[in-house]
């Protein structure tokens, strides 16, 4: 990420971890080791988890706001900090406070974004000085979506998500609908009926509105609330699922257009509007 923006932040700063949307997501093959080969466009939006850090001199990594049901050794923020510690031989520790605003199992990349922000922040705060590409290598060990958040640009992604080509995405606002369900990414990718042979395209051939989400059919069949959310939103606007679900979204050219559709959704649903970003907020 842009060094000049990061040097303005210190231990007293709030570090954002923004959500992403997959504007399309195709499964174009599968490697011999079982990992799926994907093509997608990642678009950052202005809804974020928030992280704060405080130094420790005992070398310990402590998440002061643990997520219920997630042991610390499995939490991506803790794992990210420990990986950076190990890779750099850093002896400093840190207290981490995570304000979770993005749903778990929602396909918005919240956990991956949290991990990326931890790597970027502690690389700065601990004075490690790793390059962005080195942080992306470390991040890939935590999940395929982590590198795009470290890279900091809206991007056409290939491979397992690590091959990134910057793309210009038109200004847009998004109505995001959160079904009341958490979707297991492993279950979706492990489904035998998942389509894995969509023809690949060149990054330069992508255009706004192109493609579909190949994971959508599996998510809808295994998690009925996802199918119900899509059916509800599609009565009002073209919609698709992001990531492996559960969240679904529709794109609009203006915030007023998005607000008009939001007002028509039934009461009691969790839905909100976010602006598409031109870059990760730590690069802006």
Description:
With 284 residues, this protein is an alpha+beta fold. Helices cover 28% and strands 26% of the residues. The chain has 9 helices and 10 strands. Strands 1, 2, 3, 4, 5 and 6 form a 6-stranded mixed beta sheet that branches. The protein has a 4-stranded antiparallel beta sheet with strand order 8-9-7-10, with helices on one face. Strand 8 and strand 9 form a beta hairpin. It is globular and about 55 Å long. The N terminus is likely disordered.
Question: What keywords describe this structure?
Answer:
single chain; 284 residues; alpha+beta; Alpha-Beta Plaits; 2 domains; 6-stranded mixed β-sheet; 28% helix
In short:
With 284 residues, this protein is an alpha+beta fold. It has nine helices and ten strands.
Please state the structural category.
alpha+beta
| Helix and strand sequence | HEEEHEHHHEEEHHHEEHE
* CATH class (first level) name of the largest domain: Alpha Beta
Which fold name corresponds to the CATH topology of the largest domain? Ribosomal Protein S5, domain 2
Hey, roughly how much beta strand do the residues contain?
Answer: 25-35%
Count of domains = 2
Mean pLDDT: 95
Rounded radius of gyration (Å)? 19 Å
CATH-scheme architecture of the largest domain: 2-Layer Sandwich
What distance separates the N and C termini? 10 Å
